[in-house]
Each structure stands twice: as C-alpha cells, then as structure tokens.
Design brief:
Order of helices and strands: EEEEEEEEEEEEEEE
Strand order of the largest sheet: 2-4-6-8-14-10-13-12
Radius of gyration: 14 Å
Number of strands: 15
Distance between the termini: 26 Å
Helix content: under 10%
C-alpha cells in the first residue's frame, strides 16, 4: 500500500504487505503484520508497527506517546531537530547505532539507548526484538 501527497492525519494498515506513506501533510500511523513500513516527508508520526518487516521512518514531530516497533526486522529512524521527546530504544538481538543526535541525560549501550531530545516530555519508544536500530538526525 502506497499513499502519497495528501493532507490530513492518516492511518495506513495492511495485513500482508508493506505500508509506504510519503508526503503527508498530517500525522501518520502505519501498521502491517507481514511487510515493511516506510514513512517519509510527513508532518509528524503517531506510530508504526510491523510484526515481520523493517521500519524506515522519518520523525520530525510527535504529539503523544509514540511507539515504533517491529518483531523481526531492523529500524532506521531519522529524528527531527525540533523533536521534543524522552527516547527509549531497545533490541533483544541486534545492536543500536546512534549518529549525529543530541541526546541529553543519555545512557547508551549496545542494546539500549535512553535520552532526552530537545525539551523532552513525550515518550518515544523504538523497539525491535530481532534486528538492529539506527538512530540518526533528520536533515
């Protein structure tokens, strides 16, 4: 499922297949049981969840507690410079790489990262059971 260049908040759901949300002028949520998720160039993200598949997501803003999760797959998350969030990222099997992010009060290990982005306050959880997580700055 691909949805591009539309306005308003949007939820994309697929049972067997990927969800690709691009250029949405609103907050987005994506869910799939078996497939990858790709979110880019959207106003904000409310959540993304896949049971089996990778997640590639640009997160310029969140407005409430937000979870990005996959059971089996990697997560590439690009985090916006104006994002205010309390970040927790974790993996059971895999590693976490953090690049070019300004995290205050951070704790960084191979499988768990916590820290404050901007002013913090809203929870942003990024989790995979079996896969790696890459956290980078959104440019």
């Amino acid at each position: 499922m691909t949805i591009e260049n539309t306005a308003g908040d949007l939820t994309g759901v697929s049972q067997n297949g990927g969800v690709d949300l691009q250029g949405i002028n609103g907050y987005v949520t994506a869910r799939t049981a078996n497939g990858s998720i790709d979110i880019a160039d959207c106003a904000g993200v409310d959540g993304a969840e896949s049971s089996n598949g990778s997640v590639d997501v640009e997160i310029p803003r969140i407005r409430d507690e937000t979870t990005i999760r996959t059971g089996n797959g990697s997560i590439d998350a690009e985090l916006g410079s104006e994002l205010d969030a309390d970040l927790t990222a974790s993996t059971s099997i895999g590693s976490i790489d953090v690049e070019d992010l300004s995290l205050a009060d951070s704790s960084v290990s191979n499988r768990r990262v916590t820290g404050r982005l901007g002013d913090g306050g809203t929870s942003l959880k990024i989790r995979t059971s079996n896969g790696s997580i890459d956290l980078t700055a959104l440019v």
